[in-house]
Design a protein that fits this description.
339 residues; alpha/beta; Rossmann fold; four-stranded parallel β-sheet; binds ligand L6N33NVT; binds fe (ii) ion; ferrochelatase activity; EC 4.98.1.1; Ferrochelatase
Length: 339
Amino acid sequence: MSFQGQTEYEHKGPKPKKGILLVNLGTPDAPEPTALRRYLKEFLSDHRVVEIPRLLWLMILHLFILPFRSKSSAKLYASVWTDEGSPLLAITKRQGAALQQQLDADYAEGQLPVVIGMRYGNPSIKSALKSLAEQNVRDITVLPLYPQYCAATTGSTFDAIARELQSYRWVPSIRFINGYHQTPEYINAIGQSITNYIKQSGMPERLIFSYHGTPQRYLEQGDPYYCFCMQTTRLVVEALGLDNEHVISSFQSRFGKAKWLQPYTDVTLKSLAEQGVKRVAIICPGFSSDCLETIEEIEVENRDYFIDAGGETYDYIPCLNDSQTHIDMMHKLIKQNMV
Ligand SMILES: C=CC1=C(C)c2cc3[nH]c(cc4nc(cc5[nH]c(cc1n2)c(C)c5CCC(=O)O)C(CCC(=O)O)=C4C)c(C)c3C=C
Ligand SMILES: [Fe+2]
Ligand SMILES: [Fe+2]
């Protein structure tokens, strides 16, 4: 076993720096079946994501999921792909650049480098950590871009960083921000998006907070994610003084046959329309960037469910993305956590 090191290191060398690592889920390299297969294989082989006995799951994954889903998901990704590539990656890059600009105004330029890493795919966590080490960063604040802690996302980010650092001779100091679903800055940022929407379009009959789902079993086994999602909704509702009767929290992006967190977003939309609700607005506070799951699943697929069942107006309120409020929120969160 040999460790990665910096043999050119001088004991009287440049002053060590602090740095920031922003991590998001990751995305395929291209909207094509081969790239999707590589991405889905890495993603769905993660035991934090799919908690089924290994051997059984790997057989199902390789025999039944990858051959079919790589093709169907490639088509969906092709429908959201932009000139800058996958929306998730393009937006995360912009967030990193904007945060760097803001931090450069506080510290001397280049003193506090910001790098981005993707849990699955590229740029990898390995390359992000390497880039920080090469910039002489010895103290890293990690911000996984998931407001609500979940073992499948935040926990898995921690695993990947720890695993990579096992190969380092000189392990840096690490500060890991494991969530921010209840911070006043995040609640305020989501609240502002909703207020702007209501000012422009008026209050909808129902405002839906749609979060990415997980298997129900994860909640029963102690994952706090569900409760954190509900807490986010409650805090936003309280901050804006909204009427609870008009607000619904629901869960989207179901995968597989098991029972997932409920109510399901698609079922909720169909049933609202069937009950005669004509106008809804939907926001996805658990996603820090728009991505396949919001642009395709929420803006397109779920709109169709609502309209086809008799609904008339369906408005999607975009994610915080690289808005100034979001960058200010990240800036503050990092400064509060950095010592
Ligand atoms: C926001 C938090 C997320 C949780 C929690 C989460 C759990 C989770 N996801 C899957 C399966 C898939 N998710 C996929 C896409 C996807 N998931 C998230 C976020 C969370 N996932 C994002 C941001 C994205 C979009 C990525 C992008 O490139 O735009 C996909 C891939 C797309 C597809 O084929 O449908 C899968 C598969 C599971 C099993 C899971 C379990 C807890
Ligand atoms: Fe997902
Ligand atoms: Fe989806």
